[in-house]
């Protein structure tokens, strides 16, 4: 329904979102390396993707496809993508919204946040379909966590989006993001025959919403409470007391 393009939200605590940029670069490089052939893609999807039946000891991979320990696939799956639209869509969301979440958390906490949301997405996917032998791949769980965090941090920031893929609009972030989040939950309940893991999306959303509350920098406000509106400025001016300014130094005792 909405494709994000740009947000008018400057960085306040960091100069450059280098973790976000590095994650995008890694995802793109891994995609092009694994997309060299169908054989390479198949081996990567099963060897690095999250396969619930394998992790839950319902099935085993052929020895030649075992590339990493099973538990590590909770993370490695998030760096694989099936096609250019898959990786492009996820990286676009990461580019638009990731920098401000990284700004609010700090570089290293943001990296841990990203990986934790990815793991949460894989966990819920596996809990819903524990015997599935299809590999889960894609950064959608981690990106869903970033969307949830951005919604909690900056719901009133204006973002440029393409509505229905063709109409450019500049609207508050909460409009497209709330609709996006509700859509993920609705699709998880309704279900469909597509290859999209709505469970991974919802797992990432829940993890992102919870983790941003405890991982953000001290003093970082929620829900854009730091934004000063014209109405607030006018109210402050009309209610400010007359008279000379008062310093914060005490007028008694030694200074």
From TrEMBL:
Domain Peptidase S54 rhomboid: 73-217
Subcellular location: Membrane
Name of this chain's protein: Rhomboid family intramembrane serine protease
Membrane topology: Multi-pass membrane protein
Domain of life: Bacteria
GO molecular function, one term: serine-type endopeptidase activity
Chain segments carrying region Disordered: 234-255
Main localization category: membrane
Pfam families: Rhomboid
GO cellular component: membrane
One example of a Gene Ontology biological process annotation: proteolysis
Presence of the UniProt keyword Signal in the record: no
High-level lineage: Bacteria, Pseudomonadati, Pseudomonadota, Alphaproteobacteria, Hyphomicrobiales
Sequence intervals crossing the membrane: 16-36, 74-98, 110-128, 134-153, 173-190, 196-215
UniProt entry keywords in alphabetical sequence: Hydrolase, Membrane, Protease, Transmembrane, Transmembrane helix
InterPro entries on file: Peptidase_S54_rhomboid_dom, Rhomboid-like_sf, Rhomboid_protease_S54
